[in-house]
Amino acid sequence: MAESKNDHMVYAKDLKITWSRDRRYWRWVKDTENSYVAELLNVCWLKVSGKLENANLSPGTQYEVVLVAKMKTRAYGFDDPVNFKVTYPGGTNDRPINLEVEFKDSKDQWKDIKLGEFEASANQGDIEFLLYKYGGKWKSGLVIKGVAVRPKS
């Protein structure tokens, strides 16, 4: 993704991914753009979080938050929705996302999954995001490039 002045990408290496340093659960793979992506090998407790400083955004602009990811052909455990929460100065957006449905016709292809939107304000504070599913089925096959925060088109 080419970043303009108002586009921001929080790459996988800058996210907090529970158990990402344990090779039994996650694998770091070098991407074609000389960055690393996080490939989920096997977890039942999924927690990926990150943040972006509000000061990096243009006040009064409507932004969208998207997960840039792909799902491997042999992925499993995503038939139940995972949760996504975006917190920004003045509000919170929390909703379930069925990743199996989102990737149904686009396995092994990068895709932008819209997670929420907000209007940037002059208030100080961070934009925080959290993708999570605690317990339940074991999951595998999700590959995360990062989270993009960009002006809504």
From TrEMBL:
InterPro entries: PP2-like, PP2-like/Lectin. GO terms for molecular function: carbohydrate binding. Signal peptide: none annotated. This is Phloem protein 2. It comes from Prunus persica. The lineage of its organism: Eukaryota, Viridiplantae, Streptophyta, Embryophyta, Tracheophyta.
